[in-house]
Amino acid sequence: MDYQxxxxxxxxxxxxxxxxxxxxxxxxxxxxxxKTAGVALxxxxxxxxxxxxxxFVRMRELAALGIAADDVDDAILxxxxxxxxxxxxxxxxxxxxxxxxxxxxxxxxxxx
Length: 112
Hints:
It is built from 2 helices and 6 strands, in the order H-E-E-E-H-E-E-E. The model has no long low-confidence stretch (mean pLDDT about 90). It has a 6-stranded antiparallel β-barrel. It is α+β, with helices and mostly antiparallel strands and about 110 residues long.
């Protein structure tokens, strides 16, 4: 089964938004899912849930740009008129592994 074609392509085509991921001084155009209103995230081994702003991007798209998942930490994401700092990331693999899944960018609002 082609997980990208069956599930992720329709989602990113329908609700993905053009965004800019700046790593160092290089801007990369990416399609992202805007979850800046917050996603539930388990911390402390699942003992506590918290809500944090996030965005999701496909690992396949990052890899095509020559970006590894670890490269996104401390990057700047411009999405839907907002500018955010990527504090950290989490992987969401597809059944075919991390390279075929998504990267959750955990964000904090960038100060002017």
